[in-house]
Design brief:
The chain has 12 helices and no strands. The termini are far apart. It is an all-alpha fold. The longest helix is centred in the middle third of the chain and has 45 residues. Among the domains are: about 100 residues, Up-down Bundle (Receptor-associated Protein), CATH 1.20.81.30; about 70 residues. The protein is elongated, with a radius of gyration of 25 Å.
Length: about 290
């Protein structure tokens, strides 16, 4: 008698759903220490920028660019102060690129979000489960939003619940609208309701929010440009005098008055830049 071999069904095992590739993380989030908060900010920056490198590799680029900038100005200016400025500017360049990349990536994801929510609403009308609709929409959504959704969809395939699979989606993207979407889907999975209506209203809300943010940026463009100009003006003036006279910083630092004034100016410049950045960040979040 022939033996029939039936395929073995693999049950979902939630206890193995957190097996992911190891990533470098510098912040623990367990303390309120300033160093730990800075490390957490750096971890979020690397995650939200979408750069295909480890955080330790970005730090290595900072060291390399810092050494290159310092040696370049040392050769050109032939003084240690200029070398320090070049090393600082070169070391900060990779961080600035990561911040720029994060902003561009978040803007792209925010523009993709309303269409994705509408597609999820259309998929919900077909009678499929919420998990199946989410996985189907994740496959059709282009990058970069689709990359984050596909990461959550893989967690669903590994046995995690929809709430747990999408838990880190707002943090990985840095978008408030995705946090609202995650909460809406989690509440619907627990309590039920008309999911299509909820998603359609959420899509309209996100579109209205994008329109409002565009009007807000247009209304505050002059103020933001003035703030950026005031921050960039002092370093630009200093760079002009250094390039004009290679011994400018050496002569300035040779006197006690010049040295103390320079240190005070640099300190106030850093404090002012951080304060302006905080105001602009809070305005963007609001």
């Amino acid at each position: 008698m022939a033996t029939e071999f039936l395929p073995t069904r693999i049950e979902a095992r939630p206890e193995y759903a957190s097996i992911l590739r190891d990533t470098d993380r510098f912040g623990t989030g367990d303390t309120e220490d300033s160093a730990d908060r800075l490390n957490m900010w750096f971890d979020r920056l690397m995650t939200q920028s979408g750069l295909a490198i480890q955080p330790s590799q970005l730090l290595m680029f900072c060291l390399l660019f810092g050494a290159f900038g310092g040696l370049l100005l040392l050769v050109i200016q032939d003084n240690l102060v200029g070398m320090g400025i070049g090393a600082f500017a070169g070391g900060f360049a990779p961080i600035a690129y990561a911040v720029f990349q994060r902003g561009r990536r978040q803007s792209t994801m925010l523009r993709q979000l309303p269409d994705m929510v509408e597609e999820l609403a259309r998929a919900s009308r077909t009678g499929r489960s919420l998990e199946q609709c989410y996985q189907m929409v994740a496959q059709d959504t282009p990058s970069p939003l689709g990359d984050e959704m596909r990461a959550s969809a893989r967690k669903l395939q590994m046995g995690m619940s929809l709430k747990d699979a999408m838990a880190d989606l707002p943090e990985r993207s840095g978008l408030l609208s995705l946090n609202i979407l995650t909460m809406a889907l989690s509440v619907h999975q627990q309590t039920g309701g008309d999911l299509v209506t909820v998603l359609e209203r959420l899509s309209r809300t996100i579109r209205d929010r994008i329109l409002f943010l565009g009007r807000l940026r247009a209304a505050t463009a002059a103020s933001r440009a003035t703030a950026i100009f005031m921050i960039a003006l002092p370093p630009g003036i200093l760079a002009f005098f250094v390039l004009r006279d290679p011994n400018y910083l050496t002569n300035l630092m040779s006197s006690t008055w010049g040295r103390n004034s320079t240190i005070l100016a640099i300190t106030l410049q850093i404090i002012g830049s951080l304060w302006v950045r905080r105001i602009m960040t809070q305005s963007a979040r609001t």
